[in-house]
Each structure stands twice: as structure tokens, then as C-alpha cells.
Specification:
Layout (H helix, E strand, L loop, with lengths): L1 E3 L2 E3 L12 H23 L1 H24 L10 H11 L7 H13 L15 H12 L34 H8 L9 H7 L8 H6 L11 H13 L6 H20 L7 H6 L3 H8 L10 H21 L6 H19 L15
Antiparallel strand pairs: 1-2
Length: 354
């Protein structure tokens, strides 16, 4: 409320305005993801680059056309579609067929974002919504991996990358054998540990640097951590979510490891393998689909970390980050409801007499 001459003005909140805008925050997230993309291209070559570019462009085009068809101004200038495209690509195998990636990118915007009303209204992380669909629709392609840092990755594409729609690509094992890569089983470290006949221990340094088979975003865990710390330092990420998620993952896996260190992997392996680091830093921290209450933030992050480890160690899948985050997104409103702090000056409800 303010007085100007004899006129009283009443204005709604917010009354204090910060310098950070949605566009500036999203742009900084894009900057933070670029080193991860660059390392992914270094590790997996032209196929990874083509996948990232395809998913990003299709996300931008889909959002732009949807806005035009609905008579609204285009919203691609807020950079959220770029983030969705990059994150989707990073969750997919590097040699994932481009046409499948394009289908996923289209669905991430339409099904994961616009269906709920656009930016600020999506209940789930849009990239993970599309990833879940792709895993159900194309289970073979999404579990077909290529080795990291193989010779020739910058001179040509993996055969599956340019596969025509609804055709069967050349088996990746035959292609890898033709490259002269020895000892490649076509499985990620998590798959080897979970489904191997004998426990397989992956070199910790290989996990940290990302020199392993896996999704395009399963690159250098330490690099992903540093990129996340950049956003935390700029106060553009809720640090308590990755702290709770990673901390609970370590505690839960540590309990299993202490119980049986032969059947269950070490907490270090759990922390640096798969998409845990990428999910903790760039997906679970989605501002729209995560809680806002201080206590709720800790519960949300810890819940995702716990579910991830339970799925990995006791479930039927080697990886559980995607499902854990989507479940956390679904429970986020409920968590916020039960963890809202008491309004300043409000009294607790008196107990009913008698």
C-alpha cells in the first residue's frame, strides 16, 4: 500500500523484487550443462553430439509451434525447452536412434510440460516423463550401450544413430567388434554388478571420470558435481536436495554393504555410478516439481535417494534414479502440505475438550 497525493494504491505481493529472473536462472542452468555435454561428446563422439542437438532442436520447435497454434507468444526465450532437450539427451544411450530421440523430445514438451499448462505448472520433470515413455516403448534401444572413448568416435556415427524409423539397427556388439574394442560386454557397470554371474567391481576412477558405458549423461561424476556447485554458489539451485539425496544414498547403500559386502556394492560405487549425480544436481532440483518447505526439501531429497538405492539393490532394474525422481515429484505437493511451517503469530489448534 502506498500514498500518492490523495490517492491510495493497493498492490498485491510480491513487494520485494530480486534481480534474478526465470530467464537468467534458466540460462545459467544451460551454461552449467554445457561442460557436461562437451564431455559427453568427448567420451562418445558424433553420435552423442547428434543426439543432444536433435533432442534440443525438437523441443524448441515443438514449444514454438504449440505457442503459435494456441495464439500465444513463443516461450522458447525462457530457455526451459533447451534444458529439457539437453537433459533428455543426457539420460539416453549415446547411440540412441535419432528418430526415437525426436519422439521423446516431442513428448517431453507436449506431455510433460504443455499438458499441465506450461512452465511453472508441470507436476513432473518433463525430460523424465519422456524418458519413461521411451523406456516402455523402446526397451531394447534404450538398453543398448556403446563403449566410452572408443577409437573412431569422431570420424563417423554409431550404426544405430541413423537408423530409419521402425527398422532394426545393426547389433552394437558386431559394430564394436569391428572397431577392435576388446572385452566390451554391452552392459553398464550397474548392469554388470546386478546381473553378472559374479560380482563385478568397476574401477572407481573410471566411474568418476565417466570412462564407462552408459547414458550420455553418465560422464564425469566430478564434472557434474562441479557444474552443480556453480549453480549452488550463484544461489540458483536448492543445495539441500542433492545433499539429502546423495547423503541418503550413501547411508542406505552403506547399510547394505556392511550387512553383506559381497552381494551389495560399496557406497562409493553407488554414488558415482549410473545417473545418480546427474539426477541429484539437475533433475530432482527442478524448482517447479520439488517442495518449497524447508523440512519438506530434506524429506524429498532423502526419499529419492532411498528409493534409488532400493530399486538398484532389491528391484528388477539396475537403475532407479528416474523412477525415484518421478515418485518424488508426485509426492511433492503432499510433502509440502505436511511440512509447511506455522505462520508467524498463529496459535496451535486447541485440543477438543472432553
Amino acid at each position: 500500500m502506498s500514498m500518492r497525493g490523495n490517492i491510495m494504491e493497493l498492490r498485491t505481493s510480491p513487494h520485494l523484487h530480486g534481480q534474478k529472473t526465470v530467464e537468467s536462472i534458466m540460462l545459467n542452468v544451460v551454461w552449467a550443462l554445457l561442460p557436461v555435454c562437451a564431455y559427453s561428446v568427448y567420451a562418445f563422439g558424433l553420435s552423442a553430439l547428434a543426439l543432444i542437438v536433435t533432442c534440443t532442436l525438437v523441443c524448441l520447435l515443438t514449444e514454438h509451434l504449440a505457442c503459435k497454434w494456441s495464439g500465444k507468444d513463443t516461450s522458447i526465450n525462457d530457455y526451459s525447452a533447451i534444458i529439457t532437450g539437453i537433459l533428455l539427451a543426457l539420460t539416453l544411450p549415446p547411440a540412441f536412434p535419432l528418430w526415437m530421440g525426436a519422439v521423446g523430445a516431442f513428448l517431453s514438451i507436449t506431455l510433460g510440460k504443455l499438458l499441465f499448462g506450461g512452465i511453472g505448472f508441470n507436476v513432473f520433470n518433463p525430460a523424465l516423463v519422456a524418458r519413461a515413455f521411451l523406456q516402455a516403448a523402446f526397451p531394447v534401444a534404450i538398453t543398448t550401450w556403446t563403449p566410452a572413448c572408443y577409437v573412431g568416435r569422431f570420424s563417423g556415427f554409431a550404426p544405430s544413430t541413423l537408423t530409419f524409423p521402425f527398422t532394426t539397427p545393426r547389433p552394437v556388439t558386431d559394430w564394436v567388434a569391428g572397431l577392435g574394442v576388446d572385452g566390451f560386454s554391452g552392459a553398464t557397470p550397474l548392469s554388470l554388478f546386478k546381473f553378472g554371474e559374479t560380482p563385478v567391481v568397476t574401477d572407481t576412477m573410471a566411474l568418476i571420470t565417466g570412462n564407462v558405458a552408459g547414458s550420455a549423461g553418465e560422464t564425469s561424476a566430478i564434472l557434474i558435481l562441479l557444474c552443480g556447485l556453480y549453480l549452488i554458489a550463484r544461489k540458483m539451485m536448492e543445495w539441500r536436495i542433492p545433499a539429502a539425496m546423495l547423503g541418503m544414498a550413501v547411508l542406505t547403500s552403506g547399510a547394505f554393504y556392511l550387512y553383506d559386502n559381497v552381494s551389495y556394492p560399496s557406497p562409493v560405487f553407488v554414488l558415482f555410478s549410473g545417473g545418480l549425480m546427474l539426477g541429484a544436481m539437475f533433475m530432482a532440483t527442478d524448482m517447479v516439481s520439488s517442495p518449497v518447505a524447508p523440512l519438506g526439501i530434506w524429506i524429498y531429497g532423502a526419499l529419492i535417494g532411498f528409493i534409488t538405492v532400493i530399486i538398484r539393490l532389491l528391484g528388477g532394474l539396475p537403475e532407479g534414479v528416474m523412477y525415484a525422481i518421478l515418485l518424488g515429484n508426485a509426492l511433492s505437493p503432499l510433502i509440502d502440505t505436511f511440512t509447511q511451517p506455522r505462520i508467524y503469530g498463529a496459535r496451535k489448534k486447541a485440543k477438543a475438550e472432553g
